[in-house]
């Protein structure tokens, strides 16, 4: 789920700056190009993105919103020993 979030967030960021290019999305999501291509195919099969031109569907935007809500909820609950930040932080009650 985190990888999907990283890719969708990178696409969203790039779209605010103009056109989303796969190499830029690759760099922002910190993936090897072959892995990015595989994940893009998966996201497209789940109807979360379109690849030509690269963009996010309504379902992809819904995923980003839901992911943010879940992440915020976990942070608010202060779940111990769960790294939800992606930065190695541990949240305690």
Automatic annotation (TrEMBL):
Taxonomic lineage of the native organism: Archaea, Nitrososphaerota, Nitrososphaeria, Nitrososphaerales, Nitrososphaeraceae
Q: Which residues form the ArnR1-like winged helix-turn-helix domain?
A: 2-72
InterPro entries, alphabetically? ArnR1-like_HTH, WH-like_DNA-bd_sf, WH_DNA-bd_sf
Top-rank taxon, per record: Archaea
Parts forming coiled coils? none
Look up the signal peptide feature and give its range: none
Native species: Nitrososphaera viennensis EN76
| UniProt name for this protein | ArnR1-like winged helix-turn-helix domain-containing protein
